[in-house]
Amino acid sequence: MGAAQSFRELCDRTKNTNVRLSLPAVCIVWQTAMIILFGVFIRYNEESDTHWVEYRKENNLSDIQNDFYFRYPSFQDVHVMIFVGFGFLMTFLQRYSFGAVGFNFLIAAFGLQWALLMQGWFHSLDYTDGKIKIGVENLINADFCVAGCLIAYGAVLGKVSPVQLLVLTLFGITLFAVEEYIILDLIHAKDAGGSMVIHTFGGYYGLSISWMLYRPNLDQSNRLQSSVYHSDVFAMIGTLFLWMFWPSFNSAITDHGDGQHRAAINTYLALASTVLTTVAVSSLFQKHGKLDMVHIQNSTLAGGVAVGTAAEFMLMPYGSLIVGFCCGIISTLGYIFLTPFMEKYLKIQDTCGIHNLHAMPGVIGGIVGAITAAAATESVYGAEGLRNTFDFEGEFADRSTSKQGGHQAAGLCVAICFGVGGGILVGFILRLPIWGDPADDNCFNDEPYWENFPNIYLSWKLNSLQV
Amino acid sequence: MGAAQSFRELCDRTKNTNVRLSLPAVCIVWQTAMIILFGVFIRYNEESDTHWVEYRKENNLSDIQNDFYFRYPSFQDVHVMIFVGFGFLMTFLQRYSFGAVGFNFLIAAFGLQWALLMQGWFHSLDYTDGKIKIGVENLINADFCVAGCLIAYGAVLGKVSPVQLLVLTLFGITLFAVEEYIILDLIHAKDAGGSMVIHTFGGYYGLSISWMLYRPNLDQSNRLQSSVYHSDVFAMIGTLFLWMFWPSFNSAITDHGDGQHRAAINTYLALASTVLTTVAVSSLFQKHGKLDMVHIQNSTLAGGVAVGTAAEFMLMPYGSLIVGFCCGIISTLGYIFLTPFMEKYLKIQDTCGIHNLHAMPGVIGGIVGAITAAAATESVYGAEGLRNTFDFEGEFADRSTSKQGGHQAAGLCVAICFGVGGGILVGFILRLPIWGDPADDNCFNDEPYWENFPNIYLSWKLNSLQV
Amino acid sequence: MGAAQSFRELCDRTKNTNVRLSLPAVCIVWQTAMIILFGVFIRYNEESDTHWVEYRKENNLSDIQNDFYFRYPSFQDVHVMIFVGFGFLMTFLQRYSFGAVGFNFLIAAFGLQWALLMQGWFHSLDYTDGKIKIGVENLINADFCVAGCLIAYGAVLGKVSPVQLLVLTLFGITLFAVEEYIILDLIHAKDAGGSMVIHTFGGYYGLSISWMLYRPNLDQSNRLQSSVYHSDVFAMIGTLFLWMFWPSFNSAITDHGDGQHRAAINTYLALASTVLTTVAVSSLFQKHGKLDMVHIQNSTLAGGVAVGTAAEFMLMPYGSLIVGFCCGIISTLGYIFLTPFMEKYLKIQDTCGIHNLHAMPGVIGGIVGAITAAAATESVYGAEGLRNTFDFEGEFADRSTSKQGGHQAAGLCVAICFGVGGGILVGFILRLPIWGDPADDNCFNDEPYWENFPNIYLSWKLNSLQV
User: Fold this and answer.
1) DSSP count for chain A of H helices, then E strands
2) Which of A101, A391, B225, B434 is the most buried (most CB within 10 A)?
3) Which residues contact B373 (CB under 8 A, 6 or more apart)?
4) Which residue of C has its CA nearest to A107?
5) Once rounded to an integer, what is the mean pLDDT over residues C101-119?
6) What confidence tens digit (pLDDT) does each residue in B162-204 have?
């Protein structure tokens, strides 16, 4: 005990978690930069500007045909997923709830501003005046972009400092905007719910970072990487808000009308199916058939990820059920077999199991999307429906659906490459000893970063009862 | 102590809670059946299909006139009520929060698929091709159908196995679809918020099952049927999301335009009124005028139930307040006097008090609906308004409002009969000793069905401090 | 200890917290009065009445152009903010979570009915028949009106009885309706998100009441005015739902089309900016750079308050970021320096720090609104856009924007005067020894007002471990 104690104290001394200079500096400098860049570049678009009144008269529109009314309800649902969904899903650790919900809050608020700029440069730039024109769709896309980084946060939860998270987010948003541009604009793949662009990228980005930041002695020294009763109930708040609002996530930026309608239905069905197979596998692989809260909290969501790309296609209701069926099984098996394997043999410590919830289902979603696109026919979609759904317009006017299938697959590869490559790069940066990350002994613990930490109950619990 | 101990151990031995075979089997078989049936029967309707683009041109509609935009915000609110509302409302028990929110999740995801089929056969069947065509309204109706079973779950909370709950749901959805068809289509009663179809049916269904599953020794052997501080705060999450989104529940499937608008207003007012009388009665009947959390969590919602049928009628704002006023009083008095009476003399153990929150207010709602319908006049509604509100079209074109009042009352009777009859039948099935239900001593306890249960805090609490 | 003990016991004897007569009496009498007044005055408006079918034909409208569809999603978001947002934000105290969320629920349900009447008399009175015609916009305004009183509740949280809160609400709603009429109708100031009307008024109203109810010995006698781990996580539920839905709050009653769209964007941006500067200042002023949960829970919201008035103006995205930037800093500094100063020297005990979250940011919001209005030009807004945004119609048709700026400032003064004056008046009433308020020793404690209080865990914690 004496030797271990002194080793830990040494770690605590070499690992300085004081972020009193770096955290405020990064926040203030960054926010100031944002104000300047927004001042130079960002303006309202024609639907959020006071000139809408003239625009709508010219185009003979009613006020209700402002894009705001098509997308705002879904936007708010997505917003809830980002802040409450991701934030509370990660509160399951007994002593890291502040960090889970608080740092999730910080990096989302930080990231969405940068996302508005980065995505704006690629998608919403008005070449007549060099300004980025934003509306509600940009807000949704910024939330999507942030989601990629929050997924990555799941892999390193409890093991990094807030400054590291801001660096992770800064690079993550940038990489996201570039891969999104390549996948959606250059390759012209479709990805309504971001199976590839968000989940595959975010998943592999986080796993690669976690691999770079591997802590060989983490398990021996840390007793806090588990849940308590109430922290698991808090995590269910996150699970349910993610599960319920996933139809909004996958339909938020799809086409007005049938596109949004169909994407919501497909996602609703895939998620329902996932719950049942998750429960089945969870029960089947535990003694006495007991359910594991980890699976219920996470694997039940895999169907929403996997149906993302194809959500706006004519996947058919039974197709959605099949996707959900498979993903519930695969994701739960991943928690049971793959996560321990990855930690032991691949040196990837994945706190939240994002490989099972985002990376694998994201890849499945990309494949489902490619197959569904390749199998699309005019007899099912109708001529105009096919053109609308796949945006076969302009330079893509004469693309065939089978070719589209190939491009979907190419998009998936790009997402994986950006995730892995970007993660290794950023992981390398995060290994620099300047970011204030905690010692092994302080991982999964709110104390290093939270003042006035009311820890008496918990430390009592830990010390007296040997939990 | 020794004798009691050995009796309990005997119970534990005879009552085997191992569901390792039955639970996965039911889930996998069922989900496979769903995929096949969806493949055969379920397709997108004209508003969620890619052919919408042609449909809307033919009918000279704008994209925003897709039913999706009329109903999707309400749908998501209803979805939150089903999963977070019902789920968290039932977390009040100190040691059954996983079961409350987890099994609620399971049976809702299970039930809504079956509901889409059952309700689809009755309401959305396209006779030209024998397919059920679904859109957002079907998703809402499936959630409604599930609500009936979740209400029933409240009566047996903590006393049944997940397999029993799936059986309860399977039969509950089926019975619901039939009674709904009889009440809404054959009798042509109106029931916007489902006071009769959902709450009366679900309430009596659950109470009858609980009566069939009566456990005479439950009280003596179990110390867990109570709340702790934090579990009561968790339950308030459920209460508030139910309370806030009830206007969406009652307006979700009413007529476009004034119907949805009026239903939301009426429900908002009834609920506000209920809160005040609940507080009044709760305070009046406790010594020192203290409030009881059970009443605040439950009786405050009774007004939303009772205004369900009449929500779309011209109930008038003061009418809504009166309904809420009465229901707050009746429901709270029910918790104080009726629930103990029913347990002692009628052998109905009603864990959540669904009789006070759903069954009684549902019956009141049915009666209010019948009176309001019978009292409807053309001078108040306008000729076209009256026709629209009561759907006096086709074979019902010349029905009078007084006759409609009688049919409303008939609908209420059907709901009660289906609830009681169906509950007795299903309760009989659930008494078979094959479902893995817990012994009396293991009721209201997550341990039999949840792995990795972090129970040290709780068992310490119970054993050392004699809570 | 002996002397202090007996003094406290004396207090407990003189301070009788029994509200068994007063609370039910107030609730029942009040609710009965509401029914009568609603019966006399309140009717549906043309969009929620069955005559809508004729109205829309006359005006050549589609059903989707019913105001319900423009405002209902935002209404529900506001509703969540009022009940879950305010309610859970106040659960941070370790032993006052029932009171926080329960009394918040009570006074909101109580207040919104009175608000419908009071605001209706000023704004929605139909002079042809002397009736108040209500629709969804009235529901939103009632929620807004209630928000003012809930803000005030934050200052006196844990120190007053439920009867006092009902009195506070009764007068608060009344004062609110009058000051709102003066500011919006007579002065014709614009205040989309209520920086002045809601936050400035509510903040100073609460602070003045708290000043009148000053308890000199509160700190010495009370150990409960702090949080525990889980209560801080509960409070984050409130924070996040307020933060996420604030764009809906500020856009809920702005003009259809670009007005709602722009208000949502501005608020989204201001809030994101606030998070970063809050984190920066919180970390900078604590040793080791640790974050303080109090700041994260509260100051992150200040940007939403401060952008309220100008949210619908052409504040520009960078303008919103600047507002948020400043408010995060000011609000956090307020918690660090101003709150202790006010308690010590000004005798204002502000439990939740509403001065930092509502009063100061509200004043800033009023000033920002005045400057933005005064700086508005036709070149930026367009002629028609300027007229629409500032409602320069009727008697205000030829008002200049610089004059409008002056009127905005005048509106701010009115809000402060009503808040301070009204608060002193109501505080005087609340000092009467008839309301059942708790002794100093019972403050921040749920026990006096909540039955069946499961306090064993807490009392054990307090007594055995000297937390």
Assistant:
1) 22, 3
2) A101
3) B190, B310, B313, B390, B401, B404, B405, B408
4) C276
5) 96
6) 999 999 999 999 999 999 999 999 999 999 999 999 999 999 9
CB burial of residue C421 (10 Å; 0-12, 13-18, 19+): middle
Which A positions 296-315 lie with beta carbon below 8 A of chain B?
Answer: 296, 300, 314
Domain span at C192: 82-120+136-436
The CATH number assigned to the domain holding A422 equals 1.10.3430.10
Q: Is A272 on the interface with B (CB under 8 A)?
A: yes
Residue C236 lies in a domain: yes
Global pTM reads 0.94
Q: How far is C53 from chain A (nearest CA, A)?
A: 19
Q: Do A296 and A242 touch, CB atoms closer than 8 A?
A: no
Cβ pair B79:A244 closer than 8 A: yes
Q: A–C: how many Cβ contacts below 8 A?
A: 235
Is position C100 within any domain?
Answer: yes
Distance CA A225, CA C272 (A): 31
**DSSP, residue by residue, C384-401:** HHHHHHHT--GGGTT--H
**Residue of chain C whose alpha carbon sits nearest to that of A228:** C230
B356 within domain boundaries: yes
**Which residues of chain B lie closer than 8 angstroms to A321, CB-CB?**
31, 34-35, 38, 113
A429-464: buried (b, 16+ CB within 10 Å) or exposed (e) per residue?
ebeeeebbbbbbbbbbbbbbbbbebbbebbeebeee
Say yes or no for a CB contact (<8 Å) between B69 and C72. no
- Residue in A with minimal Cα distance to B231: A230
B18 assigned to some structural domain: no
Tens digit of each residue's pLDDT (9 = 90 or more) over C19-48: 888 999 999 999 999 999 999 999 999 999
Query: Any idea which residue has 């009388």 for tokens?
Result: B277
* C269 contact residues in A (CB cutoff 8 A): 38, 113
pLDDT for C9 equals 55
pLDDT at B9: 55
DSSP letters, B203-263, are HHHHHHHHHHT--TTHHHH-S-SSB-HHHHHHHHHHHHHHHHHHHHHHHTTS-TTHHHHHH
Nearest Cα residue to B265 out of A77, C133, A19, A139: C133
Inspect the interface and report whether the beta carbons of A257 and B43 lie closer than 8 Å.
Answer: no
Asked if B272 and C112 come within 8 Å (Cβ–Cβ), the reply is: yes
Q: How confident is the model at residue B433 (pLDDT cuts 50, 70, 90)?
A: confident
Contact: A23, C290; criterion CB under 8 Å? no
Cross-chain residue pair C91–B264, CB shorter than 8 Å: no
Residues of C whose CB is below 8 A from A73: 73
Q: What is the DSSP string of A355-418?
A: IIIIIHHHHHHHHHHHHHHHT--HHHH-HHHHHHHHT--GGGTT--HHHHHHHHHHHHHHHHHH
> Is C327 an interface residue toward A (CB < 8 Å)?
no
| Coil, helix or strand at residue B450 | strand
Sequence-separated (6 or more) residues with CB below 8 Å from residue B344: none
